[in-house]
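Suppose you are handed a protein chain with no further information: no name, no annotation, nothing but its sequence. What can you learn? This example shows the usual starting point.
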Amino acid sequence: MSRHLFAGLGGLASLAVLAGCASQQEPEPLPIINFGWFYAQTPGEGAKLVYGQEGTDNVTLMLICRPRSGRVEITLSGDKAGAVQLMSGRLAARVVVRPPEGEGMDSMLIGALRADNAVLAAFVRGGDLAIIDGGHRTPLPVRPAERRLAAEFLAACRPA
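A reasonable first move is to predict its three-dimensional structure. Written in structure tokens, the prediction is:
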């Protein structure tokens, strides 16, 4: 065989090795399953509407209210006080957030909205919800069966 053929085969072998290395990159992360909206109302804690992974502490957003208080407390992941936006459709509400008082709450932020806020009403009527933080949008989609949970939560929060 000629020297050129061996050189060509050597080049192909090198490309194959490089292609093998390139395919050894980190795999794409799998989508998170079992994320959705969950509702609970207890006498001690009030009403809670949570977007997260079922059966875990993996929560993106938690809405809490004392029944008939007219006020919805918002808890989300983060560590930098400031403002975020909650959006539903084209409506946006600015929410000032800060770390909660106390130990062990370093990766959480809290804020509040009135229960009659237009964004919360749009969310209940059929819009999804999203958090906008520093230009990053985190969508919180609602399945049709979960829409009832959002309506129950907001009904529990509104003043009588």
